[in-house]
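Lab manual, section 2.4: Encoding a predicted structure.

Procedure: take the sequence of the chain (82 residues), apply the prediction step described in section 2.3, and record the output as structure tokens. A sample record is shown.
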Amino acid sequence: MKTWYKVLNGNGIILVLFLAFAASGCASRYNITTGKGYKITAKGKPKYDKERGVWSYKGADGKPHTISTGSVTEVAPASMSP
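Recorded output:
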């Protein structure tokens, strides 16, 4: 019978650390700050469309939205936004 501390010996602890690091590094929410000071919360990382000059993102409702680049002052993970 293996106990948890024996399983975490050697390669097991490396796997656990890797999974914890990978899960913590993925921001699932981003804040888009506008020039007027509004904050829009996006699900996932917004994508910049250089040809059209817009940011595309999924809103809290899960529906796709776009916002003009001229209206955006900052795009940052929610965990890093004040």
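Check your result against the sample. The domain at 4-77 is CATH 2.30.30.100 (SH3 type barrels.).
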